[in-house]
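In practice, a research group might receive sequence data for several interacting partners and want a quick structural hypothesis before committing to experiments. The following worked case mirrors that situation: the sequences arrive first, and a predicted assembly follows.
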Amino acid sequence: MPFDISSLTTNDNHQSLKNSVVRALPTIIVPFKQIVDIKEIKVDPNTQTPITVGIPRKISDVDKNALEEAIKIKEKHGGKVIAITMGPSEAKTALRETLAMGVDEAYLLSDPIFENSDTLATARVLAKAIEKLGEYDLIICGEMTLDGLSAQVGPRLAELLDIPQITYVRKVTIEGNKIIAEKDLEEEYETVEAEMPVLLTVTREINEPRIPSLRDIMKASRKPINTWTASDLGISKENVGTEGSAVQILKVTVPKVERKGIIVKAETIEEAAEELVKTILKEGVLRG
Amino acid sequence: MDFSFTEEQELFRQAVREWCEKNLSLEKVREMDEKEEMPMDVIKGMADLGLLLMTVPEEHGGTGSDWVTACIAAEELAYADISIAVPVFFLVESSWGYVIDRYCSEEVREKYIKKAIRGEAFVGIATTEPGGGSDIASVKTTAKKEGDEWVINGEKIYISGTEEAKKMGGGYFIIARTDPKLGHRGMTAFFLPIDAPGVEITKRYDDMGRMGISTGGFVMNDVRLSDEYVLGEVNKGFYYTMEGFDLARLLIGATSVGATQRALEIGMDYTKQRILFGRPLAKFEGIQFEMADLWARNEALRSLVYRTAWMVNEKYSTGRFGPLEVSKFISAVKLLGPPLAFRTFEKAMIWLGAYGYTRECPLEMGLRGIMSYCVGAEGGLNIQRIIIARELLGREYVPYK
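A structural hypothesis for the assembly, expressed as tokens:
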């Protein structure tokens, strides 16, 4: 059975919101991912594969920017921030961290059938959870997670929810029911606006994520973490995991960087420089 | 037997580490070492994180952390600031601040403890006198009751944080003779505000290490304090002093673990990259074996530190361990910690060769800093041996009266 998108919009959630006056207190949802700390990854010298077993896990860096932005908006405009993540039960620690940062509600989406989901299947799980959460005004994602670097989950999620999306946002302001965002297009910035509800993916430059204080951590330990399984979300096996994924990862290896060890021999410095430039051009490092 | 930290403690360690990476880089530590000053933003940052006097109960303005969590903070701060200036600031306040809060009046709590928690005052310990430090029972400072006031006279030397106290306000846990006939049972603890009339800071010592926090001395000439400044009960000061020393020594153990770990990592990183005789230095067994020994010793110390921290928690919460039993273990922590860190800095400097001997390399700051705890800050190493032997053999074997 194909994934039933229509089930996401049966109550035409976003449309009803669009047509209504924006709620004074916005609800912001932040889907994030707990990843292995890539700084700690070692490479098996024989197989050139990364060793990820026993590596500490953390909230993906740019996802922390998304959480920070959501919390900042809440601090300015009121409302609440809901953090959701798909992962094993160990991801509860990451959810606890989001609560310490200032998130109000935390949801773990966890089920063995979610394992090995690609960006499409992941977006499906997140979309179902967001639908179950009810009304919302903003969804903020990191531009990409630092393990996969695909930058697809946010945009796919917006498509599944059928709401506007603004990607690579480096600055955001809220005016009434409007989001005004500055997009980073590398060479230039583009300012765009959209009516809420809207999904944003943010870049690292948007803010400096806060470090929770001991007091915040202690308070967070008293807040609940909710867990939703596939059956809670009404998701069946064929839409998630390996079966529901469009992309199968066959192998992950570390690119081998080998130096060519070219030595330029010449009588004079001028000849050496000329020979060096020729070599660089020949190797395709520079275009002539 | 479960050796794992709680989720809360793991998140706290991660938060402290992240803060240190951003605010206490080795470059910043070098800057503190050269300027001989701890920037206020570091102190405020620690306050914002909830590190300052973190063990003070929540109802008194602290976070009511347990001692395992306090050890985590000490370990992480020392991993970052190997000169140990920041760890000294942290541990002096955490241990003595806790004891001051435990026995102080509401007035002292409001005026000093709560401010220190916010990073707006410094609280520390001042017991050492020109006549000696480790021998607390022979303190010469006196406190005489005159009407409603106590009149205090004496001198304290080699005191951590005098410049910080002068700059930020605050004061010290001091001990004075109130009934000379009773020996150590005739000593009373007071909170001495650094700006009390009659207190005069005499000097700042030119220390060899931990330059970011000052060491100084002060005299007390007819300093008049009301009963509000007596800590706990009159003539019980000796015992409160021992309690404070125990807590400080525990945190020194955690500081040693963090500093040792960093020295090892600096050594490992360098010797993996440095090529000598056609292979990385780290491939030589002479270096590997030293690293392995130091790592093993540090892991043994780490286990002892956290086990002892757990005993301290039990002492305060359930009374499962008595103070003397806990002191025995704490003395073992203080006996083993600083010399291990010193040894590791020394070895790592040798692995790094000529570079290790320069100020471009951070290791020498570590060697200079941790030496203060080998020399005797918070109690000399032989004092720890005497305490351990006293508990092993019995009080009748104590080599002094």
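Before designing any experiment, note the following. Chain A has nine helices and 13 strands. The longest helix of chain A spans residues 61-77.
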